[in-house]
Sequence to fold (1131 residues):
Amino acid sequence: MMLCFPRKGRVRLMLIFLSLIAMCLVVLYRNSDVPNLSGQHDDHSSTVPVYHRSNGRTHYSDDQDRSLISHMKSKFSQQPVVSKVSGMCTPVSPLTKVDINVTQVYPTLNFYPSQRSYWNQTFENRYVKRRREWANLPLKVIVLPHTHPDPGWLKTYDEYYITSVSYILNNMVKKLNEYKDLTFIWAEISYFSYWWDRLKNQPQVQKTVKDLINNGQLEIVTGGWVMTDEAAAHYHAMIDQLIEGHQWLRTTLGVVPSNAWSIDPFGHSSTIPYLLKSAGMKNMFIQRTHFAWKQYLAEKQQLEFWWKQNFNLFSQNQSHEGDILCHMSPFDLYSIKHSCGPHQKVCLMFDFRRIPGEISETMAEQINKQNVQKQADLLVGQYGRLGSLFPHNVALVLVGDDFRYNHEVEWDQQYKNYKKLFNFINANKDYNVDIKFGTLGDYFQEVHKRMRNLNIDKPPTLLGDFFPYGDVYADGRPSYWTGYFTTRPMWKKFCRDLQSWLRSAEILYSLAKAVVTQQGNAQFLELMHQNYEHLTVARQALGLFQHHDAITGTSKQRVMHDYGQKLFKGFQGTKDVIATSAKVLLFQNMTYKQSVDDRQMSETPKLIPDDKRLYYDSLPEKNVLLVSSSDGQKIVLFNSFPFHRQEVARVLIKNPHVRVVNSSNQEVPSQVNPIWSSSAEITDKVYQLNFLADLLPLSLSTFTIFIREKSIDKKSEPSVSVFVNDALDSSLKNTLFNFQVIHNENIALNSPYLSATFSKYTGLLKSLHLLSQDITSQIETKFLYYNSEEFRSGAYLFQPNPVSPILNISDRFPIVHLIQGHLVSELTTTYPNTATTTFRVYHLDGPLGAGLEIETKFDLYKRKHYNLELFMRLESDLASEDIFYTDSNGFQMTQRIRLDHIPLEANFYPVSTAAYIEDTQARLTLLTSNAHGCTSSQSGNLEVVLDRRLAYDDSRGLGEGVLDNKPTNAHFWLLLEERQRTTSDREIPNLSQLGHALSSILNYPAIVMTFEGSEKYFQRKFLTFVQNPFPCDVHLVNLRTLPTVINFNKPSSSSLLILHRQGHTCHVKSHVPGYCTHYPSKMRLSELSHVQVESVYQTSLTGIHVLQKILQLNDIQIQPMEVHTYNVTFV
Fold:
């Protein structure tokens, strides 16, 4: 019913209503969590100043840029900006319905089998029963010839190509062309492309290869550059090697893989199925999983399953739109011996390879009329037993092994003998068996067809991963492949360094090439085309190292050396690309076309990336800058993230009396620290300059170091303390710095948000205190050794000595240095000949001020003892019980449960970027810069293995220990955060937004470049490529230039824009005011600046399949946790 009011009454009611709304808005605003933009900060009783971000930091001297900077000031506030916000944190809800939850089922598995094979009478009875039903459900067998060519292991990549791979591929073309019903599969594009390039003068062979692919005899599976490791590899590099392979296939062969093949990685990640499905894969095959998982799934006929993601929206329904069908091989390995059925001695009777002079296990005899029926009966028996493990009664049988088919005669031996058996079996209808050669695609096609036509039980759904990998096939007792999570950490760290530099090179190159193309500058364009080769070399070096015997550290010592040289060549190339691209962008006039003569080109300044390494195994060093008294020294920083970031940049200088200004000529906070020439001596030859860099989104920013007058008041200089057993060297007191008396109490480092306390005896962490929340946690840091079991711990395996598993790292007290400054304070603890660890806090009001940075340097090569595994343990008072969390390839977090009924080594998991423990009150997070093995050995503990020095082989094929230890830097951030109650307790495990921010800074630091030469033609001090910052939860994975459609070695005008919208926990309370505390109700991206975009298309992950056209970047929407790829074509 409507109520009627006079006109004046309606007006009065309207005014009252509007007044009430206004009052509500005021109340909401005052109670909301508003970012601190005023520059004020709460006093946390800190004795050092706290630096706040300034809005007025980017002005230019030239009139052309003044209006731009004024406009930018209003856009770029201190934090990433979104246009629409909601104060509510929306959790990423976990999957609710799944048949097999790995985390829940894993503790119930049979970890102590009574025999090597799980095949027992129960399995045999099921096979016998199934065989009686073959008349209604015939056995279908797909026999799959394959080879497994490791791109490096016992030999180098190049040696393997010369001695084996080239012969395999040449024989493949000849024999597949000869035997029209023979099939083959190939996975490693690193080898295939190398071989193809050497066929340039053999067009007929290239045509034959394409014909074999088109008629279905040859299938390219996965199509990655390598068969990637799934434990130590980061998802960025996983994607990159997949793109490299897929783009080569598209450009060269017009091939689009749809089935994935992963037979040799040592355990399988839950991230890989997501990436494969996103790249367009429909099915996948995996091999190496824990022996207990194979038994469990075989018992339930669940060796094939829909592999789901906890966060994927498609996974919430039953359509399996976002899932991938996974086939787990039922038996131990991918050789003929282990794959034809449960009885290995019978399987060895069907390996027909016989090479003169070669030692072999084979027990095969040539098939003839006299023995064909007997051998067919045996073969059908094994294939039938294999088929009985699956509800559809289709068996996939592998015929191959490492580097098989390298001799032409093997092709004839295998084909002719199997063909006789096939003909006999298919002709004898009483067998009720249909058998043929086929590809992986043929198998899955048959499986889907049977499941659909027979309407039998659908495959189950599975959530989780398959780590750790354990075997019993070698000696009958469980062995755990958890050592390789850490093995050869220097290579693992250098790989991540290359990944970071290559990512920056890719982004800068794409932008610079687009700008140069639009300007029509032929000289610069030719320069960019030349630099594309450097990108290709670096991409392929990084891709090659993702191989499951490379990043794992499980190759021969000389092979690891070869990998290191290839990585180093790629690394040097990325530095050239970055320097050239930045130079072109800062030198180019963005508004007007201009010609550049040779003189101008030669007089432009040279940009030198500030990372000096002489060899791949050298620790990174910085160039020592000689600051000019007149012009100063210019430094350029590149922020590769599409939102604001704050970093403390570090350079080395000879003159300590300097100041630093930004591109607006405003002085920025800086601090000069001493350099230690020995454990207790400071050099006066060189100093470390730290300065605060506020970097705008996706930008190049210039800072200038100027000489200043010597300070009379030494209070502004950092104070230095040294704790040693011997007397303090008196020469230290004559240096630039203030020296304090030795502390009689424990040492404290304070930032605006936390206080870290250290033992004056050990120099190691004792506790962390969150200041604003008044939360203290006892957190002791310890460095210890595991004493490894001889012949049981090697490159692959880890097994500590059961009698005395843990040893102390040193028998003496350490040397401790304490530096307390106004920008950064740090404590450095040195245990001679073992490890040097620096703990660092920043006196800043952003993310850098909210955690404890840890850098540790170690070199086990100096140790005289062997079979030692150095690890760092955090012992806290958090009641985490038996639960801890580790990341999966830096992409998502996974819950782990420590099981006390299995050995210690079985409770280790791979960590690529993060691990954490928590209780109802607090969370303790450790962020890492490279891969480690990690566990929680008891409640409140978290530990990571740093390095391993092993004298003996572990009998997994390598044939040597690990004795080539190198000096290594491991870099961490440690966060203590308060837990909070939320409206919903159900969310997937995730880092906090602070955790994501510091992890990004840790893994992708800003690129620092120094100027060398004349600045006469230097045109721009500052450049940003986004009109507005992206939301803070959108990670720019890459902006990667694509090859042309017809030439893989030439750059096109298109780039793949890959974005990952990171999920974050709602259970952790942010203690950094204003940092990313508001969440967008609708994601809104900014358009790009300085580059003209012709078109944007959303594609599959690797850019092969076009999904939809995007009118503008603002239209892009990505759900939390998802990775999307867009093909951006520039004008």
